[in-house]
Amino acid sequence: MIKARVQIMPKTGVLDPQGKAISHALASLGFSGVGEVRQGKVIDLELSESDPAKAKRTVEAMCEKLLANTLIESYRVEIQN
Amino acid sequence: MQAAIILFPGSNREQDVHDALERVTGKAPLKVWHRDSTLPKADLIVVPGGFSYGDYLRCGAMAAHSPIMREVKARANTGTPVLGICNGFQIITEAGLLPGVLLTNRTLRFHCKDVHLRVETSQSIYTRRYNAGQVIRVPVAHHDGNYFADKDTLDRLEGEGRVAFRYCSEAGETVDEANDNGSARAIAGILNEKRNVLGLMPHPENATDPLLGSTGGQGFFASLAEALA
User: Fold this and answer.
1) Helix (H) or strand (E) holding B47
2) Does residue B97 have a pLDDT over 80?
3) Of A32, A76, B153, B165, which residue is most buried, by most CB within 10 angstroms?
4) Is the ipTM of this complex over 0.90?
5) Chain A residue with minimal CA distance to B103?
6) Mutation for A interface: B55, B58, B90, most A CBs within 10 A
7) What pLDDT does residue B165 have?
8) Any idea what DSSP says for residue B173?
9) Structural domain for A71, as ranges
10) Helix (H) and strand (E) counts for chain B?
11) Given this model, what pLDDT does residue B38 score?
């Protein structure tokens, strides 16, 4: 069994209204000096696979097909042993 | 004209579009559950509004990969008209039938109100009963209606006359206040290259009866009834 973690982030230049709202909320709570805030998501997967390189390729295919919309999001796949 | 409306768990505007189509064609559209892998013969396929799969992952992403959508894509590619309204627009962009994507409204709010749209082209089966430049009033109801595509795609859409509707003021001007979801170039609806697929965020089906407060969407369904008779 291999565990994989996918991090998905809005691409640079794509409007991230949630990140903006978080930034404003932090400022109103008194946290000064916060620059840009970007919000993404994390997806953890378990794979019945023993080869880490193969697992990574599979998860990357999942990202391309469903997990991320590559028009607006970038992704990073991390294989955890 | 026989229309088929695709139903997903979480669709909620299917009856509205059903009634709007039945009113102009005199024929009740079929409803097709998403688990069905075969589609009945249809002159028009509608992907209605709602919150398919609870908007999980991204709006429309789960529905776009459901079995029925393979068949919808195949039909669209052979020329069958496919209409995606609101969540249906999100679904067909995620499915790759139209370019771009719908992001969260720049206000971070759910917008539920009437808007003005400028009909940008009458060269489609969806808009032939309107005049280009005509302003209509129809409702919107969405949280993720902020149309986004890269510059080349936007230029191409405009160059090929594939922008069908833009958000505008009552007087027909594309002012920033009228585009409060933040859509690129105030785009509210677009056509594919072959002009048989249309996606739009507003709800013309909810503006087809005077009882509903506006009849701005009547021309939309009259166009379809005329083109697909």
Assistant:
1) strand B44-47
2) yes
3) B165
4) no
5) A15
6) B58
7) 98
8) -
9) 2-80
10) 6, 11
11) 83
C-alpha dihedral, A37 to A65 to B153 to B44, nearest 10°: -120
The pLDDT tens digits for B139-165 are 999 999 999 999 999 999 999 999 999
Give the orientation angle of helix B218-227 with respect to helix B14-25, to 10 degrees.
60
For chain A, say whether B96 makes contact (Cβ under 8 Å). Answer: no
Q: What is the pLDDT of residues B10-63, one digit of tens each?
A: 999 999 999 999 999 999 999 999 988 789 999 999 999 999 999 999 999 999
Q: Which residue of A has its CA nearest to B100?
A: A71
Active site residue: B86, B94, B116, B168, which one? Answer: B86
Which CATH number characterizes residue A9's domain? 3.30.1280.10
Test B101 with A71 for CB contact under 8 angstroms. Answer: yes
Q: How many domains does one find in chain A?
A: 1
A17 with B106: Cβ contact below 8 A: yes
Q: Which CATH architecture has domain B3-227?
A: 3-Layer(aba) Sandwich (3.40)
Minimal Cβ distance to B101: which of A21, A67, A72 = A72
CB B25 within 8 A of CB B117: no
Domain limits, chain B? 3-227
